[in-house]
Design brief:
Layout lengths: L2 H11 L2 H10 L7 E2 H8 L3 H13 L3 E6 L2 E6 L1 H15 L4 H6 L19
Antiparallel strand pairs: 1-3, 2-3
Pfam families: HTH_20
Protein name: Winged helix-turn-helix transcriptional regulator
Keywords: DNA-binding, Transcription, Transcription regulation
C-alpha cells in the first residue's frame, strides 16, 4: 500500500459512524448487508448512511454490489489489513510493543482489543 492510499483509508476511518460500519460489516464477510438493513441496525438516516458508505468505498475499504433493488455492502478485509500493516510497518517501525498491543487476549487485559461499544 502506498502512502496516499493509507492516508485516504485512515482519514475515512477517523469517524465514529464509519468505525461502527466497519465493526458491523466485518463479521458478515463477503455477504455483507443491504443498505436498508445497515441503516436500521445503526439507527442512521439514509442520506447520512450513504455519505459514510461512500467515504469508506472511495477509500477502498468497502465493496458494494447490487442485487435486485438492494445495494449490499461488505468490508474489503484485505484493504483493512493493508492499512493496519502500513501503520505498523511504516509508522511504528514494526515495534514489538506496538505489535503486542494489537494482539487479542493479552494477559491482564492490557492491549486487548475493546468491543468498541464505549462512547468517547
Amino acid at each position: 500500500m502506498d502512502r496516499s492510499k493509507a492516508l485516504a483509508a485512515l482519514s475515512a476511518l477517523a469517524h465514529e459512524t464509519r468505525l461502527d460500519l466497519i465493526r458491523l460489516l466485518t463479521p458478515r464477510g463477503e455477504e455483507g448487508m443491504a443498505a436498508g438493513q445497515i441503516a436500521e441496525t445503526l439507527g442512521i438516516a439514509a442520506p447520512r448512511l450513504s455519505f459514510h458508505l461512500a467515504a469508506l468505498e472511495q477509500a477502498g475499504l468497502l465493496r458494494s454490489r447490487k442485487a435486485a433493488r438492494n445495494v449490499f455492502y461488505s468490508v474489503d478485509v484485505r484493504a483493512i489489513g493493508s492499512t493496519m500493516a502500513y501503520v505498523l510497518n511504516h509508522c511504528c517501525c514494526d515495534h514489538p510493543e506496538v505489535r503486542a498491543a494489537c494482539t487479542h487476549g493479552v494477559a491482564g487485559g492490557q492491549g486487548a482489543v475493546s468491543s468498541g461499544t464505549e462512547k468517547t
